[in-house]
Design a protein that fits this description.
Chain lengths: ~120, ~230
């Protein structure tokens, strides 16, 4: 259950950023989770509901975008998205370099400001 | 005044906080000339037994410390304390991995060292994303866990600098395709050293000790592999 540490970091980071911008209530948070990031979306959602209580994210919805694994083969120059466990190139079969699918990134959020606020 | 809904775009890595702590630890270890190895593996893979077998040999040449990560009990720390190494237990009380902040919190309790071995919480998944400021990462995988584990936990094996195939003495008794495992590891992570050993039989320890020594030598920037541990 390292999802709990990840979600705690998310709530901490978004709360801090939102308070700096004068946001009093966060409505949605968008999170990108790579399929190879070793974090389960349903466990993240479960932990989010526990951690958000008594914060300005209490009413917020967590929207998770799952990012598929992507690879680049330096030999063939081929970039592809596939679900291979072994990170091998579909063309030559040799190990390819992962270029996506391990993300754990807060992409953004929406929130309400009582006195206007600062978008970016 | 009317409420206004705003949209904020961020690109913040969730692991950034740990990465920042780990980077501070790495600078601190560099200043101290301390080599740090993070030892990963499932519960029962033989991490503690490997340390038990190698600490007496390592302690002849280095001032060695061990951080033991476990959910509960100090059993492993007690086992290792007999070796002469300085041992600190971290009980995570339910958390499935060590993080850089936890490690940073116990460093003051250790004496001046040359080599710090961190035995992570037994788990092939969660510790992977948590950098501890280490110089190298070794994953212990026992024969009895089955030959499908590198394919099932690719991320763990991709981030390893060495993979220790432990309990090799059990090979005649279990169904295990050793050539297939080494082939999968070569494909997943061609740069990793693959070391086969049996810690309880004390066989095959030399390549492991030489690997530890090469990590220390690289950190010190000195002549690679002075081979002092195995003399």
């Amino acid at each position: 259950m390292h999802e709990l540490s990840l979600v705690s970091a998310l709530v901490e980071e978004v709360s801090r950023d939102a308070q700096e911008r004068g946001v009093s209530r966060v409505a949605t948070v968008r999170l990108a989770v790579g399929k190879r990031a070793h974090a389960l979306p349903h466990a993240l959602l479960f932990c989010f509901d526990l951690v958000k209580k008594n914060t300005i994210l209490a009413d917020a919805q967590l929207i998770i975008e799952v990012i598929p694994p992507a690879f680049h083969c330096e030999r063939c120059g081929v970039s592809e998205i596939n679900d291979s466990l072994l990170f091998d190139c579909a063309r030559c079969g040799l190990p390819a370099v992962p270029t996506g699918g391990t993300e754990l990134e807060i992409r953004g959020y929406e929130g309400d400001c009582p006195r206007g606020g600062k978008e970016n | 005044m009317e409420e206004k809904r705003i949209k904020v775009a961020l690109a913040r890595d969730l692991l950034q906080k740990n990465k920042t702590f780990a980077s501070d630890l790495r600078s601190r270890f560099a200043r101290q000339g301390l080599t740090v190895i993070n030892l990963l593996g499932s519960p029962g893979a033989g991490k503690t037994t490997l340390l038990e077998a190698s600490l007496p040999l390592l302690c002849r040449h280095y001032r060695v410390g061990v951080i033991e990560g476990d959910l509960y009990t100090s059993r492993d720390a007690e086992r290792l304390a007999r070796s002469g190494a300085a041992v600190i237990q971290i009980n995570t009380e339910g958390a499935c991995h060590l993080d850089a902040q936890l490690v940073g919190g116990v460093l003051e309790e250790l004496p001046e060292l040359d080599l710090l071995l961190i035995e992570n919480v037994g788990n092939l998944v969660c510790p992977v994303g948590f950098d501890l400021g280490e110089d190298a990462r070794a994953v212990v995988l026992s024969i009895s866990e089955g030959d499908d584990k590198p394919e099932k936990y690719p991320q763990t094996f991709r981030t390893a600098d060495a993979v220790i195939l432990s309990k090799l003495d059990l090979l005649p008794y279990v169904s295990y395709d050793l050539p297939a495992v080494t082939a999968t590891l070569a494909q997943l992570n061609p740069a990793a050293s693959v070391i086969q050993l049996s810690a309880t039989k004390e066989s095959g320890l030399t390549p492991w000790l030489l690997w530890v020594e090469s990590v220390v030598a690289k950190k010190r920037g000195g002549a690679e592999g002075c081979r002092q541990v195995c003399k």
